[in-house]
């Protein structure tokens, strides 16, 4: 038989649990960005929200907060094509569609698909390829919806531990899934994946959760445990603290990328594929760092 005290505790837990499940507050993301182009030694934005051939966006709508990163495929430069044009235009198009309300918060693949097909139908020819990762926080449902195509991605950190992360998509070593637009007549000769091939996930978030969205320039140079160490520097949820921590993470990844004696995650992956590689991987680095907070106008 339950004692009065034990019964009271059970009731209290039920009430608290019920409140947590029916939290009427809207949530939002407080987000800061930082990055480095591999040809730069400082975090410099190139032509809008672009770091080198990487691009990103941060958009707010009345129903959701939406983030995105894209990594332009550098091989196009050999054919006289600026790789940042594709990734930058893709992210700008995603941002515009979100701000116009032309999206469904629970369908990040839809944002990617609509943006990509708009680029395909553009009267001004656009060539190139890029990976892409879209993250959407539905303010009312408190659910995070994600879509990741390629080797960019996200981490969700709660209580100092990674509780969710994106799955990397590779055709083979160092060849990620990617959206592409090829020259007329060369479509079959250029690697191109459908937006529907993106890995999708949805899960609940809590106030104080940390979401880190980044291109492979971060993940190829910093393992999770190093990222978690940097996130411990995040002292509060104000923008200035988030910005400082985002910069700290991007700077450390940038330094490690040029360390020839460092066994980076990329080098380890190369060794696992039979290649004798050591050192960091010089690359563009883009970091979006977000904290789930109570929504305020």
From TrEMBL:
<keyword id="KW-0460">Magnesium</keyword>
<dbReference type="InterPro" id="IPR039123">
    <property type="entry name" value="PPTC7"/>
</dbReference>
<feature type="domain" description="PPM-type phosphatase">
    <location>
        <begin position="26"/>
        <end position="292"/>
    </location>
</feature>
<keyword id="KW-0464">Manganese</keyword>
<dbReference type="Pfam" id="PF07228">
    <property type="entry name" value="SpoIIE"/>
</dbReference>
<dbReference type="GO" id="GO:0046872">
    <property type="term" value="F:metal ion binding"/>
</dbReference>
<dbReference type="GO" id="GO:0004722">
    <property type="term" value="F:protein serine/threonine phosphatase activity"/>
</dbReference>
<dbReference type="InterPro" id="IPR001932">
    <property type="entry name" value="PPM-type_phosphatase-like_dom"/>
</dbReference>
<keyword id="KW-0479">Metal-binding</keyword>
<comment type="similarity">
    <text>Belongs to the PP2C family.</text>
</comment>
<keyword id="KW-0904">Protein phosphatase</keyword>
<keyword id="KW-0378">Hydrolase</keyword>
<dbReference type="GO" id="GO:0005739">
    <property type="term" value="C:mitochondrion"/>
</dbReference>
<protein>
    <recommendedName>
        <fullName>Protein phosphatase</fullName>
        <ecNumber>3.1.3.16</ecNumber>
    </recommendedName>
</protein>
<dbReference type="InterPro" id="IPR036457">
    <property type="entry name" value="PPM-type-like_dom_sf"/>
</dbReference>
């Amino acid at each position: 038989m339950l004692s009065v005290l034990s019964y009271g505790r059970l009731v209290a837990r039920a009430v608290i649990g019920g409140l947590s499940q029916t939290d009427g507050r809207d949530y939002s993301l407080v987000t800061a960005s930082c990055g480095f182009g591999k040809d730069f030694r400082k975090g410099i934005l190139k032509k809008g929200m672009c770091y080198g051939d990487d691009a990103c966006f941060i958009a707010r709508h009345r129903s959701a907060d939406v983030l995105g990163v894209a990594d332009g495929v550098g091989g196009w430069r050999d054919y006289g094509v600026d790789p940042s044009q594709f990734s930058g235009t893709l992210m700008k198009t995603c941002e515009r569609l979100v701000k116009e309300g032309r999206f469904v918060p629970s369908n990040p693949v839809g944002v990617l698909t609509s943006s990509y097909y708009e680029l395909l139908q553009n009267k001004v020819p656009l060539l190139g390829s890029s990976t892409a990762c879209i993250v959407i926080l539905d303010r009312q449902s408190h659910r995070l919806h994600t879509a990741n195509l390629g080797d960019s991605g996200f981490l969700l950190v709660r209580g100092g531990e990674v509780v969710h992360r994106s799955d990397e998509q590779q055709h083979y070593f160092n060849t990620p899934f990617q959206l592409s637009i090829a020259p007329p007549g060369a479509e079959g000769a250029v690697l191109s994946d459908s937006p529907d091939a993106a890995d999708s996930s949805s899960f609940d978030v809590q106030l104080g959760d940390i979401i880190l969205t980044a291109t492979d320039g971060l993940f190829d140079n910093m393992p999770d445990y190093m990222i978690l160490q940097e996130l411990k520097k995040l002292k509060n949820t104000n923008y200035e603290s988030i910005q400082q921590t985002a910069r700290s993470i991007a700077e450390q990844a940038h330094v490690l990328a040029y360390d020839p004696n460092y066994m980076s995650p990329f080098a380890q992956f190369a060794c696992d594929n039979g290649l004798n590689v050591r050192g960091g991987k010089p690359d563009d680095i883009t970091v979006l760092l977000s904290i789930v907070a109570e929504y305020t106008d």
